């Protein structure tokens, strides 16, 4: 991923990263990232919880510099979201059965902070007799949002 950037780009990313990493441990925890998101005003469109689900590749609850660069790449629209959605799907699929059930999906909707009432989604899914979503169905849903 990082190979796409020039030395200059990376240096400026590093500066941003360091300014967010207030305790200087080379990792961004949720609090540090949240402060950054609030400052740039992205917290509404990109909730921190969602960012961490998508880009915390090694699941340590923190963003490393590489993970942060991936976030910038994809977040700027120049990357492909699909692999990240697949990872998201796996993380949301808490019982690991390969599908997302209604509750897992509702958790995700809450996380996205989209102006959708989870109760309504739940109702819709139950009505359409869809108890769970496979990965392709999930991707289709995301693309339709
Ligand atoms: Ca830190
Ligand atoms: Ca991480």
UniProtKB/TrEMBL annotation:
Gene Ontology MF terms in the entry: calcium ion binding
Xref: SUPFAM superfamilies: EF-hand (SSF47473)
CDD domains assigned: EFh
Alphabetically ordered keywords of this record: Calcium, Metal-binding, Repeat
InterPro entries, per database record: EF-hand-dom_pair (IPR011992), EF_Hand_1_Ca_BS (IPR018247), EF_hand_dom (IPR002048)
The UniProt record lists the keyword Calcium: yes
PROSITE patterns xref list: EF_HAND_1 (PS00018), EF_HAND_2 (PS50222)
Coiled-coil zones: none
SMART domains (UniProt xref): EFh
Record bears the keyword Ubl conjugation: no
Domain EF-hand: start-end pairs: 8-43, 51-78, 80-115
Pfam families (UniProt xref): EF-hand_1, EF-hand_7
Protein name: EF-hand family protein
Naturally occurring in which organism (per UniProt): Coptotermes formosanus
């Amino acid at each position: 991923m990082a190979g796409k950037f020039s030395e200059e780009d990376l240096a400026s990313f590093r500066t941003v990263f360091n300014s967010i990493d207030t305790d200087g441990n080379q990792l961004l925890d949720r609090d540090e990232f949240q402060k950054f998101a609030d400052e740039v005003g992205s917290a509404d469109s990109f909730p921190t919880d969602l960012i961490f689900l998508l880009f915390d590749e090694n699941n340590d609850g923190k963003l490393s510099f590489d993970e942060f660069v991936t976030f910038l790449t994809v977040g700027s629209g120049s990357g492909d979201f699909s692999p990240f959605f697949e990872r998201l799907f796996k993380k949301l699929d808490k019982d690991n059965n390969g599908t997302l059930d209604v509750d897992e999906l509702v958790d995700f909707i809450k996380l996205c902070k989209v102006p959708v009432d989870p109760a309504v989604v739940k109702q819709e899914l139950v009505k359409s007799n869809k108890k769970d979503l496979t990965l392709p169905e999930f991707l289709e849903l995301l693309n339709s949002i």
